[in-house]
Amino acid sequence: MVTVLPFAWDPSATYVKGDQVTFEGAVYTAQWWTRGEVPGSVAAGAWARVGALETCTAGDVTQWTASAVYVAGDRVVYDGRVYEAAWWTRGTVPGGASGPWQDRGACVDSGESTVETWASSTVYVAGDQVAFDGHLWQARWWTRGTEPGGQWGPWQDLGALPAAS
């Protein structure tokens, strides 16, 4: 079992839409450019609460190492995020724009199970669930790079995620 955390919020850092941070036991996603705004401090502010930090237990997740061989479906933690191998790889650092690794996001508590946060580089198929903008979303069909939201898109809003306890 590995705890997966986005980067901790830094008051001096600049964030853009989609960036995720942890702050006081919760995960937040930036809704637009922001700098210095404390996550959760403004009701309609730049930060949307995604959910409480949760231990990621989805599959066998291990720390990435350059010398290990990974095959399709293997999951690793690198730089605070979960990545899944799309094919055989060895020595390729997760997180690049192309290559064998798909960013599966951070893990958050959906109330009933642990789900990953939405990541633009990940391929999702019908039935896959993600956390985004404080809601739980389910893919209606194959999608990649389409942000959850909108009535006619590939994502169905399953409702707000529960508040941290």
Give a quick set of tags describing it.
165 residues; mainly beta; Seminal Fluid Protein  PDC-109 (Domain B); 5-stranded mixed beta sheet; 4-stranded mixed beta sheet; 21 strands; 44% strand; disordered N terminus; hydrolase; CBM_sf_5/12
Quick rundown:
With 165 residues, the chain is mainly β. It is 0% helix and 44% strand. It has no helices and 21 strands.
Major sheet characteristics: 5 strands, mixed
Mean pLDDT: 78
Low-confidence stretches: 1-5
Which assembly state applies to the chains in this document? Answer: single chain
Based on CA inertia axes, which overall geometry fits? globular
Element order: H for helix, E for strand:
EEEEEEEEEEEEEEEEEEEEE
Whole-angstrom Rg = 16 Å
Number of strands: 21
- Counting DSSP H or I runs of 4 or more residues, the number of helices is 0
Provide the β-strand percentage band: 35-45%
Give the terminus-to-terminus CA distance.
21 Å
Strand order of the largest sheet: 15-16-18-19-21
Question: Mind telling me the CATH superfamily name of the domain at 2-53?
Answer: Carbohydrate-binding module superfamily 5/12
CATH architecture annotation name of the domain at 2-53: Ribbon
Domain Chitin-binding type-3: 8-50, 61-104, 115-158
Protein name: Chitin-binding type-3 domain-containing protein
Keywords: Hydrolase
Pfam family, one: CBM_5_12
